[in-house]
Write a structure and sequence with these properties.
By secondary structure, the protein is of the alpha+beta class. It contains 16 helices and 20 strands. It has a seven-stranded mixed β-sheet. About 50% of the residues are buried. GO terms for molecular function: oxidoreductase activity. InterPro entries: Amino_oxidase, FAD/NAD-bd_sf, Flavin_amine_oxidase, Flavin_MAO.
Length: about 450
């Protein structure tokens, strides 16, 4: 169930093996948490996951197979850091070479990488100091390492940016697992050669749309799954569209927070329910402002920024199309900041974001020709973005049996169940491949009919 990258990959693998499949999707589109839209300005905007990195090999392979071109993320020019006190620092590369808290920040991020290298990605509970680290929040661990408030502020923005959560909310072990899954701290944070290396010219859901075309009528949109009943021989799936599907196996790919919207008979095992209840979705809004041209480039600015303090926006990127036919800035509002900002009236929200963008690239940013907000905690079956995070104790209490072990005839996929690139599109794809292997093994050899 679910026509995001995990569900589409599962279905394709099974269909290629000669197994009959049906994909049930609640929304009126495919892609799940990856969603692009062509605006009246002519620009295609990615409202969800959007980047592809060179080590995300499964995503790269599918993009190549379906002839979905990519182009480098724009990072030419000076980036800017705007500190809580309003001071600014221009820089190039990953971070300013010097500044408040930089030395401590770099020491601690190196320590995080060292600890992440001890993580067992296939059997996380076998990791040294697993229970100790899972009992701590990221904030608790970081505060045992430093009392440098500027370093802590930098680390907090990193947590907010990657997991869309506050350091007090997330298991420290989950931070280490995620770093190991993606190849280290720099891989997650940086642009060139890393997770934010490139974008897809036709939108990040272009590959999902191509996968959907290859599956044809097997995909049924507007069919939210309401209940799943297992018998000794079958799974009966009931949807809000009145459809009842009888199948030998089911694969559920919806985000963890959406699992409890489905009624299961018999009920899910306690470990799976416990896992889901320790796995809230992140809190993030993604806001695009579109301009006639990327005017900041003429001034030698990249459009990349980090912002601290009480401002709603935490990070900004240049999200212009490859041909620069329009200028686009994308602003991210994370964690506690999105809670406060999203509660404000529409005009106030817009004014607050455009004020931040004006700080980054100048006054012209205050007058976009198009402006659009995607507030993910308000969005349909996703209930947040872009991925879940584990709260302290979740891995220890429920990981071994609740993370991705099948629940009878029900199997689990979705990026949160991946060992490599967990939380990313590539992880969603690998999770679908794993779930398809599980189902195929459970069903046994398929006899293909002639003709």
């Amino acid at each position: 169930m679910g026509a995001g990258y995990a569900g589409l990959t599962t279905a394709r693998r099974l269909a290629d093996a000669g197994i009959d499949v049906v994909v049930l999707e609640a929304a009126d589109r495919v892609g799940g948490r990856v969603f692009s839209q062509v605006r009246a300005s002519g620009v295609r905007l990615d409202h969800g996951g959007q980047w592809i990195g060179p080590t995300q090999r499964r995503f790269q392979a599918l993009a190549a197979e379906f002839d979905c071109p990519t182009f480098p993320t724009w990072e030419t020019g000076r980036h800017v850091e705007i500190r809580a006190d309003g001071t600014r620092a221009d820089y190039t590369g990953g971070a300013p070479e010097s500044g408040p808290g930089i030395a401590e920040y770099e020491r601690i991020t190196a320590l995080l990488d060292t600890l992440a290298r001890t993580v067992d990605l296939e059997r996380p509970w076998e990791t040294p100091r697993f229970a100790e680290f899972d009992a701590l929040s990221a904030e608790e661990f970081l505060r045992t390492e430093t009392d440098d408030k500027d370093a802590l502020q930098r680390l907090a923005l990193a947590v907010q940016g990657v997991w869309c959560a506050e350091p007090r909310e997330i298991s420290f072990f989950h931070v280490l697992f995620y770093l190991a899954s993606g190849g280290g701290y720099e891989q997650l944070m940086e642009t060139s050669g890393c997770a934010q290396d490139s974008r897809l010219g036709d939108g990040a859901d272009a590959v999902a749309r191509a996968l959907a075309r290859s599956l044809g009528a097997r995909i049924r949109l507007g069919e939210p799954v309401l209940s799943i009943r297992q018998t000794q021989t079958e799974v009966h799936v009931h949807t809000g569209g009145g459809t009842v599907v009888h199948a030998a196996r089911a694969v559920v790919t919806v985000p963890p927070a959406a699992v409890e919207r489905i009624a299961f008979d018999p009920p899910l095992p306690p470990a799976r329910l416990g896992w889901v209840r320790h796995a809230p979705m992140g809190r993030v809004a993604k806001v695009h402002a579109v301009y006639e041209e990327p005017f900041w480039r003429d001034a030698g600015r990249s459009g990349i920024a980090t912002l601290y303090g009480e401002r709603p926006v935490g990070v900004v990127f240049d999200n212009s199309p490859q041909d620069a036919s329009r200028g686009v800035l994308v602003a991210f509002v994370y964690g506690d900041r999105v809670d406060r900002w999203a509660a404000a009236p529409d005009a106030e929200r817009r004014r607050a974001v455009l004020t931040c963008l004006s700080e980054v690239v100048g006054e012209r940013a205050g007058e976009p020709i198009d402006y659009v907000e995607q507030i993910w905690p308000r969005t349909g079956w996703t209930i947040g973005g872009y991925e879940c995070f584990l709260t302290p104790g979740g891995w220890t209490s429920h990981g071994r049996d609740g993370w991705r072990s099948p629940s009878g005839r029900v199997h689990w996929a979705g990026t949160e169940t991946a060992s490599v690139w967990n939380g990313y599109i590539d992880g969603a794809i690998s999770s679908g491949e794993r779930a398809a292997r599980e189902v195929a093994a459970a069903l046994g050899p398929v006899v293909r009919q002639p003709g």
